[in-house]
Amino acid sequence: MRYGVSSTNLRVLPPTASGHRPTEGRWVPNMLPTVDGDRKQRLAYAIRTARERRNLTPPQLAERMGRSRGTINDWESGKSAPSLLDLGALCNALMVDPRLFADLPPVPVSPVDEYLVEEAAQEGIAEGKRRVPRRVRAGAQEPSP
């Protein structure tokens, strides 16, 4: 895109004499807000759920968007988040209303979470396993103390 040419999504500004682009009242890519951990997880859940409801695999979604499969996997795992420019293509590929990404649904609590053992209990379980004597195979002699 040439300087001074605008599109519906982005306006490219010409560099100033010092070589820096002006930022007063204008959107510049390096001014994107960072996404915190909770929002990344909610965003990942929304992308994964919408993709699954459309019966798409990550490679199919990546092909529709022109992105790599690894990028889609990173978005769905919460390792990274799509840029603002990718959200439009993501909405088109998933056929969802863009408001989905503004009002992210909460990640539902998994019923498995109730059964997860805390770290302290996990250490106790591991300690108990070390104290349990090994089973002796049939016909083998027990080791002498």
Notes on the structure:
This protein has 145 residues and is mainly alpha-helical. It has a domain at 36-102: 434 Repressor (Amino-terminal Domain) (Orthogonal Bundle). The chain is 43% helix and 0% strand. Helix 2 (58-65) crosses helix 3 (69-77). The longest helix has 17 residues, at 37-53.
Q: What are the SSEs and their pairings?
A:
Elements: H1 37-53, H2 58-65, H3 69-77, H4 84-94, H5 99-102, H6 119-131
Helix pairs in contact: 2-3
The level of helicity is 40-55%
Radius of gyration: 26 Å
Derived from helix and strand composition plus strand pairing, the structural class reads mainly alpha
Flag low-confidence runs. none
The CATH class designation of the domain at 36-102 is: Mainly Alpha
CATH superfamily of the domain at 36-102: lambda repressor-like DNA-binding domains
> β content, as a range?
under 5%
What is the CATH topology descriptor of the domain at 36-102?
Answer: 434 Repressor (Amino-terminal Domain)
What's the SSE pattern? HHHHHH
Looking at the structure, what is the overall shape?
Answer: elongated
What's the end-to-end separation, in Å? Answer: 80 Å
What is the helix tally? 6
Q: Report on the biggest sheet.
A: none
Second CATH tier, the architecture of the domain at 36-102? Orthogonal Bundle
Number of strand elements: 0
Mean pLDDT: 75
